[in-house]
Amino acid sequence: MADAPQEDAATTSKKAAKKAEAKAKKEALKAQRAAEQLSKQTAALEIDDPAKDRYGLVKPISPAVFSAEAEEVNLRSLGEEHEGKTVILRAWIQNTRTQSAKMAFAELREEGNWTIQAVVMVTPEGTPEAQVVSRPMVKFITAITPESFVAVEAKVKRPLEPVKSCRVSTFELHITRCFTIAPAPPMLGLTLAAANRPITDFNDEDVKAPGESDKEPEAGVPAATMLTHLDNIAMHKRAPVQQAIADIRIEVKDLFRSYLKARGFKEFEPPCLIGAASEGGGNVFRLQYFNQEAFLAQSPQFYKQFEIAGGRKRVFSIAPVFRAENSNTPRHMTEFTGLDLEMEIKNDYSEVLLMLEGVLLHIFRGIKERCAHEIELVRSVYPSEEVLLPEPGKEVRLTFAEAQQLLREEGPEEFRNVRDDEDMSTPQEKALGAVVRAKYNTDFYVIDKFPDTARPFYAKVDPTSKPSADGVRATNAFDFFLRNQEILSGGQRINDPDELAERISAKGINPASPGIKEYIATFRQVGVPPHGGGGIGLDRIVAWFLALPSVHLAAYYPRTPKRLMP
Amino acid sequence: MADAPQEDAATTSKKAAKKAEAKAKKEALKAQRAAEQLSKQTAALEIDDPAKDRYGLVKPISPAVFSAEAEEVNLRSLGEEHEGKTVILRAWIQNTRTQSAKMAFAELREEGNWTIQAVVMVTPEGTPEAQVVSRPMVKFITAITPESFVAVEAKVKRPLEPVKSCRVSTFELHITRCFTIAPAPPMLGLTLAAANRPITDFNDEDVKAPGESDKEPEAGVPAATMLTHLDNIAMHKRAPVQQAIADIRIEVKDLFRSYLKARGFKEFEPPCLIGAASEGGGNVFRLQYFNQEAFLAQSPQFYKQFEIAGGRKRVFSIAPVFRAENSNTPRHMTEFTGLDLEMEIKNDYSEVLLMLEGVLLHIFRGIKERCAHEIELVRSVYPSEEVLLPEPGKEVRLTFAEAQQLLREEGPEEFRNVRDDEDMSTPQEKALGAVVRAKYNTDFYVIDKFPDTARPFYAKVDPTSKPSADGVRATNAFDFFLRNQEILSGGQRINDPDELAERISAKGINPASPGIKEYIATFRQVGVPPHGGGGIGLDRIVAWFLALPSVHLAAYYPRTPKRLMP
Questions:
Q1: Are A440 and A523 in a shared domain?
Q2: Which of A118, A228, A470, B347 suits a disulfide with A224, CB 3.0-4.6 Å?
Q3: Residue A213 has pLDDT above 60, yes or no
Q4: What's the total number of domains in chain B?
């Protein structure tokens, strides 16, 4: 098994890894020569082979090559009813192993990391099955390159003992026909085994997988860099760990959507192209748009609010957002998926807080339940501790002032003097997370009532709050944390146009500037009910929940300042 | 009722509309003065009002102002169990009408076009309810500006006869408390009635609503231009017709997603930012991306295929796509939502065709069933004929050659000589649609086996096809049509890297060019099974199904070459 990055070997810094790669390349070349040799032999033998129509390289395949009674199956749904039956399976050859000239094994793999052992045995002469499997056919099968796509016809049998190395352990397939539909190259740029190792280098910062940071890679299976993975995108995605992460990501979205739909939320699609960089900051992508300039949306904030102004009681969106931030860290991407919601407030903004807390706990509990197999698989590559969630009724919600007090009293020495009217720093967040975990036994908690200095102009100031000496006031706005990292920002928004214009001016922004003017005007068009909402980074909650060393692993096609391919 | 566009009156070309607008403005001013007058009177009367705590302008509202036994309700769920009970409803004032100094009516509206009649009557002196409703309270309510957001407490009663003007016709609300939570301005930029009229001008082409094109607008309710609608986005979205279109759009997405999920498809998210304009053409947005150039995705084509290469059997995506096309027509937008799928092919690409046909028919039949009320509402504004769908088992699938023959034999004179090896023009498509409708009684049909000259490089040539004299061959690729317009392109893709490189060269594209090189390389990384798929424009299928005069009406925030706001 070999990991042989084609272009980016230079980026792998560790000498050990290089050595292992060189060795692996050598082995792969050897394997390639052996395969070529076998292939020649096979060709020579095929001529008089009584089984010659039962195997080979075929494109396209015709259903006529299989027995009429053979049923197409998926490994996921293989059951007792198939025992003794003839089935057709389309799958990848994961590996093959020659037992003798008459017998070989292959591991077949399907989507979702379903694997099964296949056996191919020369059928004895003088029996009715004499022409089913020949020696050349066994040789053909063992010579199929790993990650080739094949269609096999086989009898489903029970193995003598359970096959521990395969996910389907109680059945095996006795091959009667085998066709290569799409061959893989003799040498893979990244083997499945290597693709399923922890990534050694994200080419951004020196990141280590938690709990495994100093382990040596297993002999013969060198790990690879993120760049090698991206250069071999098909193998990156075929890795069981990546399939599991993608499956968890799908469930997170489904849990988010179904929870909100059941509570009267309507999905909508905010635009990506916008006419003004109205949420400020330099982190916005600009582009030439016919005779004007356009920007890529940094969040759906304004549009969520327009939906509320436009007569929706509750809306959510699952949509891409963009940040032109030149941050080459495992926490940042330039494009990611936002899970956003916005809702009418009846009496108090705590309705919003509870809704967001509810949906997140529903997601976390839901993936623990639905994705137990996937989580375990991810942990086998990237070890992590179980996420501690609060029991129902014991959710941890601190005000910003309470959190700061906790930090002063129970946090490390350096945070003895943190203030209630200044935003928290990342080190403070981390320290607070540790204190909260020790005190409340949870990795998930809420900090409410952030000071207005730490919040954007649309955040509603708590009308009951008292200003500090410097005039700083608390807002009806909060952050959610998971494993010491912020995963959500939310709160009540200002729905009164005069109050909004005033806050915008107070923040030093011109209320007449492009985008802002139209934003305020929307609240003058009609009566807009009180409302609030929040935004969650999908990539981040997947990554932090699984304690992945980089958010890039949670994305389908991570976009970083240096990388837009594939 | 008035439509008074603030900035874009100049864009409304018709004199009649201008005249009506001027008249409407005048009326609105009159109404504003009357409202101010009333408001003054109310203020004067309030001082000694025994009911003075039961109404008024409040922000924020406290639950303590309502009776403890009052239950919060939505109009959607109002039922017999509420009769005689006291309820709280938060809704918009749609309009008010004074009957006498002692009695008035109001129409209240909630999301989804749910409306109910509310009655407010001065409670007789000397009864236990004497202080519930006073004359100033009646005046206050009649003076509330339309589209204000209010919270009312009321008794649910049966009206003497059903209220035909409201969606909730079997109940009415007898108001006992009424608070304005968010007031609308005295003069709306676009009234609800005007917002619900057919849009007169899309500022692109002169488009008429089918079937209604030459009707005069009803007296007193002038229609408005699309630009006026967009300048009054909250009122545009509050219009019942727009709420209905948005609700149908949501169902289309849900039907697409649930059908595919039930058939083993996994959702994924293709990127918007890409490193190469690999699908060619000049219609691509470019932007500066740190030290390189980036492009906005024109389709998720390559990424769907990467998912298949990466080990998924079946994938779908619902994602924004971008076209930098300077087309100012009601058929075009620069950003729209693509519904895409891609799947492994077992035996034949007809598996893909049938899957796409199945999901589209499921969508069309599904919205007919689930959205009957909404479709009817849309038709009341934009009249259209029922879409004719084929009965199960009677789907119409023509080859390109058969379609051309049909056009030659049964189409208009001008298409007597159409060829089998050239792409169809839009007039041809329209003419063919009419022939198919007359012959097969359907507005939905498939044309298969397009010539390779009309297809992109990734389309699989039908290996059984015979080349024409000019070497043109049929492909395993098809288009779907609805009401004579193309709504889907799909087919089998090339999965063999050598064949792919050859086709790319044959199309005059350099296989080594950025994006293309990496695309081909992915098929060399592993064995990629045969696969195919298709892409549907969400905005278009909503618009064509409803026969809307412009696709812009189906979008949440239409993006056109001239417009990026709001």
A1: yes
A2: A228
A3: no
A4: 2
Q: Are A73 and A110 in contact (CB under 8 A)?
A: no
- Specify burial of residue B100 (Cβ count, 10 A radius: 0-12, 13-18, 19+): exposed
Alpha-carbon dihedral of residues B281, B287, B293, B294, nearest 10 degrees?
-70
What residues of chain B score a pLDDT lower than 70? 1-47, 59-60, 130, 203-221, 280-281
Which listed residue (B332, B455, B552, B559) is catalytic?
Answer: B332
B518 to chain A: which residues are within 8 Å by CB? 565-566
- Residues of A classed as catalytic: 323, 325, 331-332, 486, 489, 540
What is the least distance, in Å, from the CA of B439 to any CA of chain A?
34
A385-419 burial, b for 16+ CB within 10 Å, e for fewer? eebebbeeeebbbbbbbebbebbeeebeeebeebe
Where helices occur in B47-166 by DSSP H, the ranges are 135-142
Please indicate, yes or no, whether residues B160 and B269 belong to a single structural domain of this protein: no
User: Across all residues in chain A, what is the average pLDDT?
Assistant: 89
Tell me if B508 is assigned to some domain. Answer: yes
Whether residue A65 is found in the same domain as residue A143: yes
Q: How far apart are CA B55 and CA B57, in angstroms?
A: 7
Contact A191, A2 (CB under 8 A): yes
**B434 phi/psi in degrees, rounded to 5:** -65, -40
What contacts A388, CB < 8 A, 6 or more positions away?
A437, A441, A442, A443, A444
A309 and A448 inside one domain: yes
Summarize the confidence of residues A93-117 as an average pLDDT.
94
Same domain for A405 and A548? yes
Domain assignment present for B363: yes
Instruction: Assess whether pLDDT exceeds 50 at residue A209.
Output: no
Instruction: Check residue A404 and give its pLDDT.
Output: 94
CB B254 within 8 A of CB A254: no
Q: Work out the average pLDDT over A429-457.
A: 95
Find the residue in A nearest to B320 (Cα).
A272
For residues B50 and B506, give the distance between their C-alpha atoms in angstroms, rounded to a whole number: 87
CB contact under 8 A, B311 and A267: no
Task: Report which secondary-structure segment, H or E, holds A419.
Answer: none
Residues A250 and A146 in one domain: no
CATH of the domain at A417: 3.30.930.10
Mean pLDDT over A527-552 rounds to 96
pLDDT for residue B131: 77
- Average the pLDDT over A523-538 and give the result: 96
The residue among B137, B157, B182 that closes a domain is B182
Q: What is the pLDDT of residue B421?
A: 84
Cross-chain residue pair B527–A180, CB shorter than 8 Å: yes
Same-domain pairing of B167 and B249: no
**pLDDT bucket at A2, cuts 50 / 70 / 90:** very low
* CATH number of the domain bearing residue A158: 2.40.50.140
CA atoms of A559 and B294, how far apart (whole Å): 11
Q: Which of A73-87, A115-129, A397-411, A438-452 has the lowest mean pLDDT?
A: A115-129
Active-site residue, selected from the candidate residues B109, B229, B323, B559: B323
Torsion on CA atoms A356, B316, B542, B199, rounded to nearest 10: 60
Tell me: do B261 and B147 sit in the same domain. no
Give chain B positions within 8 Å (CB) of A556: 268-271, 303, 307
The complex's ipTM? 0.89
**A43 in a structural domain:** no
Residue A357, pLDDT > 60, answer: yes
Question: Which of residues A161, A182, A203 is at a domain's end?
Answer: A182
Position B32 in a domain: no
- B257 assigned to active site: no
| pLDDT attached to residue B72 | 94
Q: Is there a contact between B311 and A63 if contact means CB atoms under 8 Å apart?
A: no
Predicted local confidence at residue A123, as pLDDT: 86
DSSP 3-state of B367: helix
> The domain containing residue A313 runs over which residues?
242-554
Beta bridge pairs of residue A56: A179
CB A509, CB A458: distance < 8 Å: no
CA A499 vs. chain centroid, Å, equals 41
